[in-house]
Amino acid sequence: MAQWRWLTAGESHGPGLVGIVEGVPAGVAVTRALIDGDLARRQQGYGRGGRMAIERDQVKIFGGVRHGRTLGGPVALLVENRDFANWAESMSPDPATPDRVVTRPRPGHADLVGGIKYGHRDLRNVLERASARETTMRVALGAVARSFLQGLGIHVVGHVISIGSVHIKPADWKLEDFERAETSPVRVLDSESEAKMMSLIDDAKAAGDTLGGTFEIVAFGLPVGLGSYVQWDRRLEAQLAQALLSIPAMKAVEVGTGFQQADLAGSQVHDAIWWEQDAGFTRRSNRAGGLEGGITTGMPMTVRVGMKPLSTLMSPLGSFDIESKEPFLAQVERSDVTAVPAAVTIGEAMVLHVLAGAVLEKFGGDSLEEIHERVESWRARVRKF
């Protein structure tokens, strides 16, 4: 049976980023415009830094697609780094004496521990791959997963819940509500909070500081039965947590109402089951976030992610040079004040990858048409349970 497997390669200031995804069924609509649309969303957001003014990410499709449809084989993608023109000698793969050497690790980044682990005396060898620039290709490959799942009636969307100390008010959002996030500079659904967030970002920029926040990813249209309780690594919550925490700067994941549930009685946490003749079994509420026992319930699946402030500060914290062992202010690299709005798109991509894999595990099939027939047959069967 096909599995959804993918890999990325490339460095932040190298020639480009490469990705390959295997398991994509035949017949999925994939175009450069489709992928470029999500790449553009990743680069947007109030509080982004100078790199976004340089890069205008556009994908090149190198395999697996013909005339706008996948062929059933691996899909290979490339996104070139425009900034490589300024780094061609420094990042050349050919033998040379290293320049732009970094010996001052930044607190909160992989610089120091990565250098220790891999034996790098030039910490640029760490930060180039540990950089969030790598998530560009995750998003490009995620766009392929998005098209696959949308062909099955599954939609994955996201929005910002908080930036710094500014939080939006909780609400029961519907799929059509998320169009508002696409027009917001901070990708937020609450217009009242938007201005407060932007003002807070301005204050942090003036102070040479950075801001974190939280965002929510919601999947609509999922069938009952994705995931499993029979083994620890097949529980969908576990897969989602690993995928989302693999994004640089992410520090927490909760499903449904998550951490709030630890403070409440069971009667305030669990979702009452309901049954209707035409719809079959459903829930009266969705505090579980669409997942019970590691399996989708058919309700919207909601996961929230906590992002720490970015590690690179324009007013840097103290550090020590790994060569001289003398104290210095930490290395300053080009950075953002906040990337929470952009992280929403990356979070969507990671959820899309997990769900694409879960769909293939449950239904199998070699073409989108075949899988669609199996999904619809399953939905009809579930309604009669």
Automatic annotation (TrEMBL):
Pathway per its UniProt entry is: Metabolic intermediate biosynthesis; chorismate biosynthesis; chorismate from D-erythrose 4-phosphate and phosphoenolpyruvate: step 7/7
GO-annotated biological processes? amino acid biosynthetic process; aromatic amino acid family biosynthetic process; chorismate biosynthetic process
Which EC numbers does the record give? 4.2.3.5
Q: Which keywords has UniProt assigned to this entry? A: Amino-acid biosynthesis, Aromatic amino acid biosynthesis, FAD, Flavoprotein, FMN, Lyase, NADP
**Which reactions is this enzyme annotated as catalysing?**
5-O-(1-carboxyvinyl)-3-phosphoshikimate = chorismate + phosphate
Per its database record, what is this protein's job?
A: This reaction introduces a second double bond into the aromatic ring system.
Q: What is this protein called?
A: Chorismate synthase
